[in-house]
Write a structure and sequence with these properties.
951 residues, alpha+beta, OB fold (Dihydrolipoamide Acetyltransferase, E2P), 13-stranded mixed β-sheet, 8-stranded mixed β-sheet
C-alpha cells in the first residue's frame, strides 16, 4: 500500500459486540459515561459484586461515591476544562493533518519513477543474485572519506522529525552509529519519501546509500561525531513486525551519579527487564562490548597456553559418574541407564595427563545443579580449564595461570580499550589493579589478616583457618588486601582440606591443609586449583571417604593404576572473570543466554476453550493458509466470548459504560481501560492466551502513549501478568487485594454446622430453589420479578457499597447460570448468578443476593446450591471476587522508604474503612485468598495516580 493510501485510509470503530479492527492497534469504546468515584478500584475490584445476609457484614457498608457535592462540582469543572483542551487540540491536529494530506497529494502527482525507486521495501532476500555494490563497515569511516558516496546495511536506531521537509535518522552497526540527513529535494527526494522515512519503525534493518558530509555541529547523539550521511537512497531489508518493550536507544540512556546503585548498571531499565528481553539488550553497545571482551578473554587464554605447548582438548559432557559429589549434578536418562552432565572436565583432563599429553586445556560448558540464585552463580557456564604434568612443585602450574591471567588483564585494557570505555558508561569502575609480582598468601595467614582487622563471621565469631571462606569474608579480605598491598588481584595458597574435593593432594607438612590455591579478583574467587592425587590407592581411599565407589569410575582409575605422572590443574569461569574485570555486578550479564535455577519455567496447561471461534492464538483470519484477511476487514471476536475463554472475575464487568475497550487487530485480544484525568486505569488481565500477554501489552502501551498520552496503571492482575509487567517491562508491582476462591467439590460450606443449620431453617420455612435452563433465555416474567427485587434491595441497603459495576443480572445471559430462591408464597427471596470465565479459572459467583424479607438462611441455601451445581458441572474453581488484603505486599522493584510510605497509607485506609474484616460468610464457604496485583511504570504512580485509582 502506498504512503498516500495509508495516510488517507478511513478508520472504523464499532461497538463491543461486533467491532472491526481499523489498524494494528484498534480502540473500541463502550458508550460514554462518568466514572464512579469509589474506593472499589483500589480495594475491592475483584467483583463478586454483592453478598447479602443478615449476619454478613462483608464490604457492603461503604459509600459508593465518597465525595461531597462541592468536591463533585470541582471535579466536574476540571473534567470539562480537560475535555475542552482535548477538543481544541484534536481540532488543531485534524487541521494540520488535512494540510499535510493535501501537500502529499500534490507531491504524489509530481513524483517520478526514479524518485519512487529511492525508497521503499526491498523484496525478500533469497540469495538469487549478487550485486557488486560495495557495502562498508561504519567502523571504517574516517574524516578523510568526506564527500564519498557510501552504501551500508544497518539498523534504524532513531528517527527525529525536524519539519515537513527534513528528517534526521540515526543508523546503527553494532558499536557504531552515524547520523543520516534526509531532506526534500525537487526532482530527487520527494515529500512522500521524507514522510515515509519519518514514520519508519526503529529496529528495521535498512539499506542506506548517501554521501558523507561534515555536519554543521558535531553530532553528540552518534558515535561518529564529525561526519553524517546525506541520504539519497533508503530501503527496508527487514521490517520489525512486533512492538518491543524498550528501544536500544532507551536501553543506552544512563542516570546521574546520585541516582545509581553503589555497584551495577546505572540506567533506567533494570537488569531483570533486560534479561527477560535478552535479544533487545544484546543489541546495545554495552552488551556488544561485553561479549567482544569475553571473546577476547577466551582468545588470549587460548593463545597464551598454545605458546606454552599446551594441547587444546574437547572432553565429553556426559559422564557415568559425578566428578565431585552427587548433590550438584544434573542426572539424565542415557538409554535407560543413569548418567550425569559434567560438573567440570576434571576427570577427562587427568585421564589425558595419564595418557601422556603432558599439558592440556579446554574451553567448554560446565554444568552445576546448585539451586543458588545469587549474582555470581549459573547452572551452566563456560569453563577455562587447564591441567599439566609437574616436575617438582604444583607452583609450576600456579605460575602458568598467574602469568596467563595477567596477560588477559593486559590484553583486555589494551586491545579492547574502546569496548571497556563503552561498558564503563553504564558500569562505572576503576581499571583492575595488579602487581608485577602477585601476592601469594597462605590461607591461614589471610584468615589472620581478617581476624586482626576486627572481622567476625556470620555467627559473630573469628574466622576459622580450617574452614572455607564465606562470600562476605572474601569481600572483606579483598578490602584488606587492597589496603595492604594496593592490588585487586592476589592468590591464597594452602587451602584447608575440608574445602577441597577428594582428588586434591594433602600438604606434606600438615594434612589438615592441601596443595591447593584460589585466585581472587576484586575480593571474589575466580579460580580454584592445585595438585591432584596421582597415587591410585590414596585416591581410592579419598573417594570412599566422600561416598564415591571407585568401581563406578573404573575408566578414570585405570590411568592411575597404570601410572600417571604428578600433575596439577585449575579452572576458571569465563563469565565470572568478565563480570569481575568489568564490575558488572551480575554474572548473568556476562552470559549470552544465561541459565540459572529459574530458567525453563513450567508452562501452564492449555485448557479447551469455551468458544474456539474466539481463539486469539489462532484467529479466524489466520486459519486458512493463503487467505489472510486485511486488517480493516477483520471481525473481532465477541467481547463476552473472550471473557468466557480468557477472563477473570474483573473482566465480567467490562460491559459497563465506563469501560473503554481496545482491540489488538493481529490477535483479536482485548484490553479494558478507564480514563481518569491524566491516567488510564486498566482493570484485569488482557483477554487473550497468557503466552500472548507480553505481545498484546506492549502493543497496547504503544497505542496508549501515541493516541491518548495517558499514564497507565494496571490493577487487579494475576501472577502471570504481574510477571510480564514486573519482569519483562520493569514496572513496579504491589499487592493489596486478594481474590477469594472456592473448590466446589470440597463442599466446605455444608460441613459447617452453622451453615447447615441455616440451610435447614430456610428449607423448613418453605424456601425452594429453581435452576433456570442455561440453554434457553431467561423468561421475561422472571427478569421483571428479579429486577424489581434488586430495586428493593438497593432501596433497603445502608451505607456504602464497593463494586466494579452496577447490578445487571441479565447482561451476557449466554455465559451465566441462574439459581432463584422463592419462599412458600412464591415471592422471589434470593438469587445466585454464576458467570463463566476462563476454563482454568472456572466460574465467578457474580451475584449472590437475598432480598428484603427473605427467610433466614436464604443466602446460605442459594449460594451452596449454586456451588454444588458448579461441582456437578465439573467446575474446579469458583471465585467470589476480591477483597482488601490485611497488608500491602511489595512485588517487583519495590523496596526501601517508598514501600514503608505506601504500607502506612494503605494501613490507614484499611483502618479508616474497617476493610480487613474477612467475610465470615466467605470463610464458611471455604474461600482461600490468591493475591492480585497493582502495577505501574517507574515514576508512574504518585499521589495523583493513587487518587485516579480511588476515583
Amino acid at each position: 500500500m502506498s504512503v498516500l493510501k495509508k495516510l488517507t485510509k478511513k478508520t472504523n470503530t464499532g461497538g463491543s459486540d461486533s467491532p472491526r479492527a481499523s489498524s494494528e492497534f484498534s480502540p473500541v469504546s463502550q458508550s460514554p459515561g462518568p466514572p464512579r468515584r469509589s474506593l472499589a478500584h483500589f480495594l475491592h475490584l475483584g467483583e463478586k459484586d454483592y453478598t447479602s445476609s443478615e449476619n454478613d457484614s462483608d464490604l457492603s457498608d461503604l459509600d459508593s461515591d465518597g465525595l461531597s457535592k462541592n468536591a463533585q462540582k470541582r471535579a466536574l469543572i476540571k473534567q470539562r476544562k480537560h475535555e475542552q483542551r482535548s477538543r481544541l487540540s484534536l481540532e488543531h491536529r485534524d487541521d494540520s493533518s488535512e494540510r499535510a494530506k493535501q501537500r502529499l497529494e500534490e507531491a504524489a502527482k509530481t513524483e517520478t519513477e526514479e524518485m519512487k525507486a529511492r525508497y521503499g521495501d526491498l523484496p525478500l532476500m533469497q540469495s538469487t543474485t549478487r550485486n557488486t555494490t560495495h557495502r562498508i563497515d561504519l567502523n571504517t569511516v574516517t574524516e578523510e572519506m568526506q564527500g564519498q558516496e557510501i552504501a551500508f546495511r544497518c539498523r534504524l536506531h532513531n528517527v527525529r522529525r525536524m519539519g515537513a521537509r527534513l528528517v534526521f535518522l540515526v543508523f546503527r552497526q553494532q558499536l557504531s552509529t552515524i547520523q543520516g540527513v534526509l531532506v526534500e529535494q525537487p526532482g530527487k527526494i520527494s515529500a512522500l519519501m521524507v514522510h515515509w522515512a519519518e514514520h519508519l519503525r526503529t529496529g528495521n534493518v535498512m539499506l542506506v546509500k548517501g554521501v558523507l558530509q561534515k555536519p554543521e555541529i558535531p553530532v553528540k547523539s552518534a558515535s561518529i561525531h564529525d561526519l553524517e550521511v546525506k541520504v539519497t537512497y533508503l530501503h527496508i531489508i527487514v521490517k520489525r513486525d512486533e512492538p518491543v518493550p524498550f528501544s536500544v536507544q532507551e536501553a543506552e540512556l544512563t542516570i546521574s551519579d546520585d541516582e545509581h546503585p553503589i555497584e551495577g548498571r546505572h540506567t533506567l531499565i533494570p537488569d531483570r527487564t533486560r534479561l527477560a528481553n535478552r535479544i533487545m539488550d544484546l543489541r546495545t553497545a554495552t552488551s556488544q562490548s561485553i561479549f567482544r571482551i569475553q571473546a577476547g578473554v577466551g582468545n588470549i587464554f587460548r593463545t597464551s597456553l598454545d605458546d606454552l605447548r599446551f594441547v587444546e582438548i574437547h572432553t565429553p559432557k556426559l559422564q557415568g559418574a559425578a566428578t565431585e559429589s552427587g548433590a550438584s549434578v544434573f542426572k539424565v536418562n542415557y538409554f535407560g541407564r543413569p548418567a550425569f552432565l559434567a560438573q567440570s572436565p576434571q576427570l577427562a583432563k587427568q585421564m589425558a595427563i595419564a595418557s601422556d599429553f603432558e599439558r592440556v586445556y579446554e574451553i567448554g560448558a560446565v554444568f552445576r545443579a546448585e539451586n543458588s540464585n545469587t549474582h555470581r552463580h549459573l547452572t551452566e557456564y563456560t569453563g577455562l580449564d587447564l591441567e599439566m604434568a609437574i616436575e617438582e612443585h604444583y607452583h609450576e602450574m600456579m605460575d602458568v595461570i598467574d602469568n596467563t591471567l595477567k596477560t588477559i588483564f593486559k590484553g583486555v585494557y589494551t586491545k579492547y580499550r574502546r569496548e571497556v570505555e563503552i561498558v564503563k558508561e553504564q558500569f562505572p569502575s576503576e581499571d583492575l589493579v595488579w602487581l608485577e609480582e602477585t601476592p601469594r598468601i597462605p590461607f591461614k595467614d589471610a584468615v589472620q589478616l581478617l581476624n586482626d582487622s576486627g572481622w567476625l563471621n556470620e555467627d559473630g565469631e573469628p574466622v576459622s583457618p580450617l574452614e572455607d571462606l564465606a562470600t562476605r569474608d572474601e569481600i572483606r579480605l579483598g578490602e584488606v588486601m587492597k589496603e595492604k598491598y594496593k592490588t585487586d588481584y592476589y592468590i591464597l595458597d594452602k587451602f584447608p582440606r575440608s574445602a577441597r574435593p577428594f582428588y586434591t593432594m594433602p600438604d606434606a607438612e600438615d594434612p589438615r591443609f592441601t596443595n591447593s590455591f584460589d585466585v581472587f579478583v576484586r575480593g571474589q574467587e575466580i579460580i580454584s586449583g592445585g595438585q591432584r592425587i596421582h597415587e591410585a590407592t590414596m585416591l581410592e581411599d579419598n573417594m570412599r571417604l566422600v561416598g564415591i565407589d571407585p568401581d563406578d569410575m573404573a575408566e578414570y582409575m585405570e590411568g592411575f593404576k597404570w601410572g600417571a605422572p604428578p600433575h596439577a590443574g585449575c579452572g576458571v569461569g569465563l563469565e565470572r572473570i568478565v563480570m569481575l574485570i568489568l564490575k558488572l555486578g551480575n554474572i548473568r550479564l556476562a552470559s549470552l543466554f544465561h541459565r540459572d535455577p529459574k530458567s525453563f519455567p513450567l508452562k501452564p496447561v492449555v485448557e479447551k476453550l469455551r468458544h474456539p471461534e474466539a481463539d486469539t492464538l489462532h484467529p479466524i483470519w489466520r486459519r486458512e493458509r493463503g487467505r489472510e484477511i486485511a486488517v480493516e476487514d477483520r471481525q473481532m471476536p465477541d467481547l463476552f466470548d473472550l471473557v468466557a475463554n480468557y477472563g477473570d472475575a474483573t473482566a465480567t464487568s467490562w460491559g459497563d459504560a465506563r469501560y473503554k475497550i481496545w482491540r489488538h487487530a493481529d490477535t483479536g485480544a482485548a484490553v479494558s481501560y478507564v480514563p481518569v484525568g491524566h491516567y488510564a486505569i486498566l482493570p484485569g488481565d488482557p483477554l487473550c492466551a497468557p503466552s500472548q500477554y507480553y505481545r498484546v501489552v506492549v502493543a497496547f502501551l504503544q497505542w496508549l502513549k501515541k493516541e491518548t498520552h495517558l499514564k497507565p496503571i494496571w490493577i487487579l492482575i494475576g501472577p502471570e501478568m504481574e510477571e510480564v509487567l514486573g519482569e519483562r517491562l520493569g514496572w513496579k508491582t504491589l499487592s493489596c487485594v486478594a481474590e477469594e476462591r472456592v473448590d466446589p467439590h470440597k463442599k466446605t460450606a455444608e460441613s459447617d454446622p452453622e451453615v447447615a443449620r441455616k440451610i435447614r431453617k430456610a428449607q423448613a420455612e418453605g424456601v425452594k430453589i429453581t435452576d433456570l435452563d442455561h440453554k434457553h433465555p431467561v423468561p421475561e416474567s422472571i427478569k421483571q420479578r428479579a429486577n424489581a427485587r434488586v430495586k428493593d434491595w438497593l432501596a433497603n441497603r445502608k451505607g456504602a457499597q464497593i463494586h466494579l459495576s452496577n447490578i445487571d443480572l441479565f447482561r451476557d445471559e449466554k455465559h451465566r447460570h441462574y439459581y432463584i430462591a422463592e419462599d412458600k408464597e412464591g415471592t422471589l427471596c434470593g438469587i445466585a448468578v454464576m458467570a463463566e470465565i476462563a476454563p482454568s479459572r472456572g466460574w465467578q459467583a457474580k451475584y449472590t443476593l437475598d432480598f428484603p424479607g427473605a427467610p433466614s438462611g436464604t443466602i446460605e441455601y442459594v449460594t451452596t446450591h449454586a456451588l454444588n451445581a458448579a461441582a456437578n458441572a465439573g467446575i474446579k474453581s469458583v471465585t467470589f471476587g476480591g477483597g482488601a488484603a490485611a497488608h500491602l505486599t511489595p512485588g517487583h522493584h519495590m523496596s526501601g522508604a517508598k514501600v514503608k510510605v505506601l504500607s502506612a497509607t494503605y494501613d490507614a485506609i484499611i483502618k479508616q474503612f474497617n476493610l480487613i474484616r474477612k467475610s465470615e460468610f466467605r470463610e464458611k464457604m471455604g474461600a482461600v485468598a490468591d493475591p492480585l496485583w497493582i502495577a505501574y511504570p517507574p515514576h508512574g504512580l504518585g499521589s495523583r495516580g493513587i487518587k485516579a485509582i480511588m476515583r
